[in-house]
Amino acid sequence: MKDSKTRFSDRVENYTKYRPGYPPQVLELLKTECGLSPNSLIADIGSGTGISTRLFLDHHNTVYGVEPNAEMRAAAEAFLKDYPQFHSIDATAEQTHLPADIIDFIIAGQAFHWFQPDRTKQEFQRILKPQGWVVLIWNERLVDTTPFLIAYEKMLLEFATDYQQINHTNITLAELEQFFDPHPIEHLTLPNHQIFDFPALKGRLLSSSYCPNLGEAGYEEIMKRLQEIFEENQTEGKIMFEYKTTLYFGHVK
């Protein structure tokens, strides 16, 4: 299996262009449920290319983006260069290099399943304020709501490399509860979607580290199948990816 800290290095351009953002209702939920304000200090752990970071920067928060992958970190720095309240840090969830007891909200978007839970929890406890929040967010692609999504999931199971091994859905609710223990964990879901033509759909697939890349074994086969299922399911040259955006939040300190 590829190293989790480098496996997206050759996916950065497609990741930046074609991964989904997060619904603005995320902010409203965190304001209502957790007291998020523009003055809240944010640590975005596993911040990647800055997709989740930007949501909070647009809310006028100061955000520390902690990302160990050099290529993704550079992409975030370019993407967010006009935000003076963004601070990019070359570090990991297990060792963020942030000072102790300063963070109001730790955010992890599409990233928590790459962390080492025990060491990460210790680090989160160190950098959070006493009543600070941990918020884990995933855009979860629906797999059985449309013929296209059913066919897409079947394609991944047949042609993708380590899709089943690294899928974030392998993390159970019990494991998340253990991470937050002894505090309760809450979760909420929101609808989300993307609409793609074929070149964008191809880019979305190639943003995934389990998809064979150009020149790798299996690339031609998965692209051929992608073209087939697109043509079978497109409407006016477009298809829809449906997601549910799930937030898990609570205290760990």
Outline the fold blueprint.
Elements: H1 12-18, H2 25-34, E1 41-45, H3 51-57, E2 62-66, H4 70-79, E3 86-89, E4 103-109, H5 117-127, E5 128-141, H6 147-159, H7 163-166, H8 173-180, E6 185-196, H9 198-206, H10 219-233, E7 239-250
Parallel strand pairs: 1-2, 1-4, 2-3, 4-5
Antiparallel strand pairs: 5-7, 6-7
Helix pairs in contact: 1-9, 6-10
Note down, in words, how this protein is organized.
- Helix 1 (12-18) crosses helix 9 (198-206).
- Helix 4 links the parallel strand 2 (62-66) and strand 3 (86-89).
- The longest helix has 15 residues, at 219-233.
- The protein is globular.
- It has a domain at 12-142 and 166-193 and 243-250: 3-Layer(aba) Sandwich (Rossmann fold).
- The chain has 10 helices and 7 strands.
- The protein is an alpha/beta fold and 253 residues long.
Output the CATH homologous superfamily of the domain at 12-142 and 166-193 and 243-250. Vaccinia Virus protein VP39
Q: What is the CATH topology descriptor of the domain at 12-142 and 166-193 and 243-250? A: Rossmann fold
Number of strands: 7
Uncertain runs are: none
What sort of overall outline do the alpha carbons produce when their principal axes are compared? globular
**Structural class of the secondary structure composition?**
alpha/beta
Give the CA-CA distance, first to last residue.
33 Å
Radius of gyration based on Cα positions = 18 Å
Return the average pLDDT rounded to an integer: 93
CATH architecture of the domain at 12-142 and 166-193 and 243-250, by name, is 3-Layer(aba) Sandwich
Supply the CATH class of the domain at 12-142 and 166-193 and 243-250: Alpha Beta
Helix count, per DSSP? Answer: 10
Helical content stands at 25-40%
SSE string, helices as H and strands as E:
HHEHEHEEHEHHHEHHE
Strand line-up of the largest beta sheet: 3-2-1-4-5-7-6
The percent range for strand residues is: 15-25%
Question: How many strands, which pairing sense, and closed or not: the largest β-sheet?
Answer: 7 strands, mixed
